[in-house]
């Protein structure tokens, strides 16, 4: 029998207020999915004059998606505050108190450069525990700055040929597709499991001249094919939507890299730790893969700010292990 998201959550043993929040959030994603599907017919295309906190031009759909999620999630009973790629500060929902609750972080519309060209885009989300406070007080950004290891749930929704939710409650990874006929999220895939070995990598190769030596070495070894050190031929894919690239890895394995590079040497990477790298790292680990930020497991990094950037390498375990070894070797004295 096909299991719906509601049935899965009800049987998962998860805290009912976490279930409440996840249903509110996925309800918001259903509305984003409908807006994406309407496209130009719904006046959602194009850029705005505004920039987000990262200095990136905001697309209409970035802002619409952010507003949809804020509105959809606010009623969730124990949601304390929200952090978003599209908002500079945190968005308080209610006061922190003795009951704690949850913090929600999201990139409401990831891969927005792909909106106009009708390529998969997505929403990425992370849920952290809110600390308890003896007396009631407003939540502050510092309350959010917890390692990804603390996440109680994480997931993404891909708006592609199908709208697909990939979710972890820290007990494996489940995959649901939004059925446009019944408007239900149905579990249609087996639980995701990333094979440890792969012959596929994903990186924006136009940045090759800016990469650090270990990343360059890794990719050169893959490109050398069966007569090179890897002894096998590799395939390459790059959608330029992290959700789509990670989803491919969830379905058939592979490795995704958006590493530090020398274009902006003082920036740790392009992608954001708290609402892009951490949720993806938890999903990948829960599916049997691994994630590395150039120093250690992504989930162990202690955030210093809400919009902090990070170097991202994640996917099939054997490949991430190899990347870790290449980074460790580069630190050894010659
Ligand atoms: P965004 O959050 O502004 O959409 O940027 C994140 C996206 C990722 O989805 C994707 O992996 C990456 O940026 C692509 O970057 P590039 O265009 O440099 O290849
Ligand atoms: Mg993004």
Note the main attributes of this structure.
5-stranded mixed beta sheet, Fructose-1,6-Bisphosphatase, Chain A, domain 1, alpha+beta, 17 strands, binds 2,5-anhydro-1,6-di-O-phosphono-D-mannitol, 8-stranded mixed beta sheet, 8 helices, D-Maltodextrin-Binding Protein, domain 2, binds magnesium ion, 334 residues
Task: Report on this structure.
It is a single chain. The longest helix is centred in the first third of the chain and has 23 residues, at 16-38. This protein folds into two domains: 5-189, 2-Layer Sandwich (Fructose-1,6-Bisphosphatase, Chain A, domain 1); 200-331, D-Maltodextrin-Binding Protein, domain 2 (3-Layer(aba) Sandwich). Helix content is 30%, strand content 24%. The chain is globular and about 55 Å long. The protein has an eight-stranded mixed β-sheet with strand order 4-3-5-6-7-8-9-10, sandwiched between helices. The chain has a five-stranded mixed β-sheet with strand order 12-11-13-17-15, sandwiched between helices. The chain has a two-stranded antiparallel ribbon with strand order 1-2. α2 runs antiparallel to α3 (60-73) and α5 packs across α8. It has helices spanning 5-11, 16-38, 60-73, 141-144, 213-223, 242-252, 273-286, 317-331, and strands spanning 47-51, 57-59, 79-84, 91-92, 101-110, 121-130, 153-159, 163-168, 173-179, 184-187, 200-202, 235-236, 255-258, 271-272, 290-292, 309-310, 312-315. It contains eight helices and 17 strands. The model has no long low-confidence stretch (mean pLDDT 95). It is of the alpha+beta class. The structure holds 2,5-anhydro-1,6-di-O-phosphono-D-mannitol and magnesium ion.
